[in-house]
Design a protein that fits this description.
Radius of gyration of chain A: 29 Å
Distance between the termini of chain B: 12 Å
Shape of chain A: elongated
Strand order of the largest sheet of chain A: 2-1-5-4-3-6
Largest sheet of chain B: 5 strands, parallel
Structural class of chain B: alpha/beta
Distance between the termini of chain A: 12 Å
CATH class of chain B: Alpha Beta
CATH topology of chain B: Rossmann fold
Radius of gyration of chain B: 13 Å
CATH superfamily of chain B: Response regulator
Strand content of chain B: 15-25%
CATH architecture of the domain at 310-438 in chain A: 2-Layer Sandwich
Number of domains of chain B: 1
Oligomer: heterodimer
């Protein structure tokens, strides 16, 4: 089966202009049976046949070729993998996405919501058992209750207590009662806030990503030459009402890093240098005397109004594969909950720490990208602690890489990768860790 | 000879009431709020019994319990905690706690426990 909507588009255009299958086949110089297979997406089509058909249909060839949002397709594949017992018709998934884009987006959104809620439920269950705030709150409250109970019992059962001692016990009951009510109120606020926020977003990570997406992963006010940490507070004030404390912490940390990067690589100077260096991270790291991760972060956020730069995706993970930062591209989905393809250079980089890796990669849909990855240890001044490596990967679409970064030769081997095993059709992949649903 | 009790607890009002009760029961009582200072106080005060909280500033009750367990002739330990989970109780028992009591407790309950442990 060919995962393409080209045939469907040819059929739609042919019927739109009132042309029979036989007539179109004759005009294009192919057999009717071959056209029939093409129109039912059972044969791939390219080159002269595509150009002939497009010419006879009176449309540009490009308008017939597949431009389905691969992020949407991936989400639908994941949804199919989530409930395989329902036996969704995965063979016609691309056609479904193309013919019913609205329903497809709805299905993908409902699936993502379900997935996020599953994660939230797991996290909340885990929190009830291990949350330090809950443990601390219960400890405080039970200690308050113990003090009140013990003191009240003494006052009730012991008659010969001195006036000063009695006064101290009364004071203790007053103080402990006050602290108990404060602790109880804090606990109620904690749960109410959590319930309210989880109704909107499932996890701090999701909320953090929404925040980044809202800002398009760029903070122009932090790029101003005189920007300082106060500007981060200003940015957080607007979001604070709808943002949980853990999310604010994530956002603050990320924006502080962004601000630090701007001080080393000011926007205008960096944009000019990046253009001159053909967006080569190594050259930029040398010029600005900083590490590759900092340059990666700056490159991924460079494209904006007034700054022509390639569209670049970025992912940063820790050694356990936990996604610390996701800046996805439309055509290169980055799984939110782990389980990405282990063949991605970002994971390979952990096997060769501090060595920058460059690889051309191809997703199962045939789209190619250049991936630049490097694993670097976080700086520590403490002795005898294990190194904490973080890996970062830049992903640049093939056409963007060709236009902006000619130093990236595409003559080397292209590695076949996927997005995650469950929805990857590469059956004999040696890195497969779970069965595909396809 | 009067038996000595050291209360290692960070809540001053619990120290106040426990000290009052145990003093009236005929024991010599001192207290320590800082977990990091507990072992030094045990060394100087030489208590027969330590009433030890689990969650303390600077050092956990479990760590202190391990040090006490390592002493040749250490005091008995009555562990007090706001955590009643089986896991905490198991941890304390594995280290060698003499008795375990969860908050909140009644005055008679704790005085009786102390009397039993020091009899």
């Amino acid at each position: 089966m060919v995962h393409s909507l080209t045939g469907t588009r040819i059929r739609q255009q042919r019927t739109r202009i009132g042309l029979s299958q036989t007539a179109l086949a004759r005009q294009a110089g192919i057999s009717t049976s071959y056209l029939n297979l093409i129109e039912h997406n059972k044969r791939g089509i390219a080159g002269k046949v595509l150009l002939s058909l497009a010419r006879e249909l009176g449309v540009p060839a490009q308008s017939l070729t597949d431009d389905t949002d691969s992020g949407l397709t991936t989400a639908l594949q994941e949804a199919a993998a989530y409930l395989p017992k329902e036996a969704p018709e995965t063979a016609s998934l691309t056609e479904f996405a193309g013919r019913f884009p609205g329903w497809s987006r709805l299905l993908a959104a409902v699936f993502r919501k379900t997935q996020d809620q599953d994660t939230a439920i797991a996290e909340l269950s885990d929190r009830l058992a291990h949350d330090p705030f809950l443990a601390e709150s219960l400890h405080i409250m039970l200690s308050n209750i113990t003090a009140i109970r013990s003191t009240a019992e003494i006052l009730r059962s012991v008659e010969d207590i001195g006036r000063d001692q009695t006064s101290r016990f009364h004071g203790a009951i007053h103080d402990e009662s006050k602290r108990l009510s404060e602790a109880a109120q804090a606990l109620i606020d904690y749960f109410e806030k959590d319930i309210g926020e989880n109704a909107r977003t499932a996890t701090p990570e999701e909320e953090f990503e929404k925040f980044l997406s809202k800002h398009d992963y760029r903070f122009p006010s932090l790029d101003l030459p005189d920007a300082d940490a106060d500007e981060i507070d200003v940015l957080l004030v607007d979001a604070a009402r709808s943002m949980s404390a853990p999310t604010r912490k994530l956002a603050r940390r990320m924006m502080q890093t962004y601000l630090d990067d701007t001080k080393i690589m000011p926007l205008s100077a960096f944009a000019a240098s990046a253009l001159a260096a053909d967006y080569n991270p190594s050259a930029l790291a040398a010029e600005f005397q900083t590490n590759l991760h900092a340059v990666f972060r700056r490159l991924a956020g460079l494209k904006r109004d007034g700054v022509a730069a390639p569209a670049i995706g970025l992912q940063i993970v820790n050694a356990a594969g936990h996604a610390l930062l996701r800046h996805p591209l439309t055509d290169f989905p980055l799984p939110r909950h782990g389980n990405a393809c282990p063949l991605w250079p970002i994971y390979q980089s952990f096997t060769q720490p501090e060595r920058p890796l460059l690889e051309w990669i191809e997703l199962p849909n045939g789209k190619q990208f250049v991936a630049l990855a490097v694993a670097l240890p976080r700086e520590t001044k403490a002795f005898d602690v294990p190194p904490d490596y973080r890996a970062a990967m830049l992903v640049i679409p093939k056409d963007q890489a060709r236009s902006f970064a000619p130093w990236l030769s595409n003559t080397q081997t292209v590695r076949q990768v996927g997005t995650s095993c469950r929805i990857c059709p590469r059956e004999n992949c040696p890195a497969r860790c779970e069965a595909t649903v396809f | 000879m009067t038996k000595r009790i050291l209360i290692v607890e960070d809540e001053p009002n619990i120290i106040e009431s426990l000290s009052f009760l145990l003093d009236r029961a005929g024991y010599l009582v001192e207290s320590e709020q800082d977990g990091a200072e507990a072992m030094a106080r045990i060394d100087t005060f030489q208590p027969d019994l330590v009433i030890l909280d689990v969650m303390l500033p600077n050092r956990s009750g479990f760590d202190i319990l391990r040090d006490i367990d390592g002493l040749d002739t250490g005091p008995k330990v009555l562990m007090l905690t706001a955590k009643g989970q089986a896991r905490d109780r198991q941890t304390a028992e594995e280290i060698g706690v003499t008795r375990f009591m969860t908050k909140p407790f009644s005055n008679s309950e704790i005085v009786l426990a102390v009397q039993e442990m020091l009899s």
